Amino acid sequence: MQSVVAKAPRTSYECSSCGHREAKWLGRCPACGEWNAMRETSAPAGDGGPKREARFSVPLESVDPAEGARSPSGSAEVDRVLGGGIMRGSSVLIGGEPGIGKSTLLLQLAARASVQGRVLYVSAEESAAQIRLRADRLGLKRPGLELLCTGDLSEAVRALDRVKPALFVVDSLQTIASADAGNVPGTANQVKYCALELADWAREHGSACFLVAHVTKDGMIAGPKAAEHTVDVVLMFEQSETDARFLRSAKNRFGSTDEVGLFTMTERGLEEQTDPSELFLVRRAGEAPAGAAVAATWEGTRALLVEIQALTVPGKASLSRVYSERVEPARVARVAAVLEKHAGLGLSDQDLYVNVSGGMRLSEPGIDLALAAAIYSARTGLALPPSAALAGELSLAGEVRPVRRMSGRVRAARAMGFERVVGAASIRGEATVRGEADDPDSWERVSTIGATIRALFGSGAKNGGR
Q1: CA atoms within 13 A on the CB side of 285
Q2: Averaged pLDDT for residues 104-122
Q3: What is the pTM of this model?
Q4: Domain with residues 69-274, CATH architecture
Q5: How far apart are the C-alpha atoms of 407 and 441, rounded to whole Å?
Q6: Which candidate, 264, 195, 269, places its Cα nearest to that of 230?
Q7: Which string of b and e fits 271-301 if b means at least 16 CB within 10 Å?
Q8: Which of 3.30.450.40, 3.30.230.10, 3.40.50.620, 3.40.50.720 would CATH assign to domain 279-460?
Q9: CA nearest to 461, candidates 370, 385, 399
Q10: What 3-state DSSP class applies to 35?
């Protein structure tokens, strides 16, 4: 008779400070950094990860392309940033500052999305009564919208298996936890593990998943970078000094990352901005002050007219410094160096302040020409023509280089009432000419920064004190 050897109980080591679990003892907890905090404990019953059904490969020709069809989200701006709408089986991570409107945006999306099936809203931060009060205030109603208030991942997954929603929202990723990844929510392991489990469930069941993420004081999504690699789309919700909100795509497997969604916060929730250029242009009755220039920039699939403002003051202790939040300071310094070298403008002893009206962050190369004109105007005290908009990239040699979609920028400027649009000459390097008056898509072409200054300021152009 064979003797039966009892299987030794499985053990693991758990951090007494944060609950992080490891298979072997470590002197320092990798999650919280605490020394000598690992204690030997029995491994949990669920240790080893969830058991999944075996999956088999399929021929590419057998995959139905209709499974990748998109559904409208109920917001044209959200659809624009997502790349055309909500895709089945996708996972979207939305991050932003506290109170910016992430929960409001996703509750509106959950109530208005044109998906076939039920929608589940999982909240680990609010009660069902709080969510209902917000929905009533925003006038949101949807048959088949269900709520679950829990911070336990296993309860959320059981609800997903029971409801089988076509779309589900988890608010937020940092407040939901699984016993398989420790006892404390918000740790690096918890964020990575929960993001992977929820994204995998969405892929396997053809459901769309939206995850709310907290951010650090630097504005980055809190937790490991692996959570961003796990999901398909990463969106960042930003706020300006006004009520404007910007939804940007930092990662998108199904579309462009150049798109920007524009909203304003009102008593009825987040409303789409139908005329976005009105947010970034300052309408004045008289002549514009020195230091203001209008840039015709291109964001994603549309042109925006944005006012760039510059100010120059004598530097302290003969040190020149750049103060700019909405335009990269390195770009401001580069454009200032080009002006000093090729336009004879004295800026080495000046502090430069640059701002964007409406608080929008600009990174497109086409704003270089408007930025240079704003700095020149601020330094010399000469105002730009009130009806002029500019678009062009500035090289270190002082050349004005072409930018994409120039005709679209011109049409947008004309629609906003700008009679003059100044931009780069053609790629063939033709001389500076005036666009034909009978062509609505033409613009005033310049080839160098010197030609731009002469075209805008004429004989009154100065050399900034040199």
Answers
A1: 0
A2: 94
A3: 0.74
A4: 3-Layer(aba) Sandwich (3.40)
A5: 5
A6: 195
A7: bebeebbebbbeeeeeebebbbbbbbbbbbe
A8: 3.30.230.10
A9: 385
A10: strand
